[in-house]
Design goal:
By secondary structure, this protein is α/β, with parallel strands linked by helices. It contains nine helices and ten strands.
């Protein structure tokens, strides 16, 4: 498999080393030429000098033959922009790193599904460890055709949960309102701005994307 990283950060280098040891192809996009020269002596991977948020640079990274694009610079805005450009160029899967959790809501609205908040992930891990809880990741529990999908409720969709009209094999797992975790009942009303998390069969993802994905949201914005 082939992975492209934007930003030669510590996370990038640690992940790249693991992937290289496993026999995967790695390309790192970095603006600092001196850093590229130094890393080239220790990492057997490809390097591209330039701004990973610019289409010309990302096209040089060969989107059609890349399995993952990891946007891991130290700037949230840069990672979001690079992710949107990468998705528009056809990268199969785009992972966006953000440090400020306030941007997560925006990422969901933009359709950036693979968003990671490292500080929060580590904090939850340590808090669960402190509480003596089993550290079982959601990804390990989802098997076969089960998938998770999240969307943000628009003003015209504010209505009781039971009126969402979800597909048969689709259930609401939870909601987040003003950053607070909720377990809504069928009769509870959704509000504009609520983030809704669903669990569904994979065959329903295209329909869910059509209804709540970034393209549909752009149509509503016109």
């Amino acid at each position: 498999m082939r992975a492209v990283f934007i930003g030669a950060t510590a996370v990038t280098l640690m992940t790249a080393r693991i992937l290289l040891k496993r026999g995967h192809e790695v390309v790192i996009i970095e603006q600092d030429k001196d850093r590229i020269d130094a890393l080239a002596e220790e990492l057997d991977c490809g390097f591209i000098h330039g701004d990973g948020g610019k289409p010309a640079i990302l096209r040089e990274a060969d989107p059609d033959n890349t399995d993952f694009l990891f946007c891991l610079t130290g700037q949230d805005q840069s990672n979001i922009i690079a992710s949107l450009v990468g998705r528009s160029l056809g990268f199969r899967r785009v992972v966006t790193r953000i440090e400020d959790p306030e941007f997560e809501h925006i990422c969901i609205e933009l359709g950036l599904e693979d968003t990671i908040v490292p500080a929060r992930t580590i904090a939850r891990y340590l808090a669960d460890m402190f509480a003596g809880q089993d550290l079982l990741e959601l990804s390990a529990m989802l098997k076969a055709e089960a998938r998770v999908f999240a969307f943000v409720v628009k003003a015209e969709e504010a209505a009781p949960l039971g009126e969402l009209g979800l597909p048969r094999d689709c259930r609401v797992v939870c909601c987040y309102r003003d950053g607070k975790f909720l377990l809504p009942e069928v009769e509870d009303a959704l509000r504009a701005g609520d983030e809704v998390v669903l669990i569904t069969h994979s065959r329903h993802l295209p329909a869910l994307e059509e209804r709540w994905g970034p393209r549909q949201q752009r149509r509503r914005g016109h």
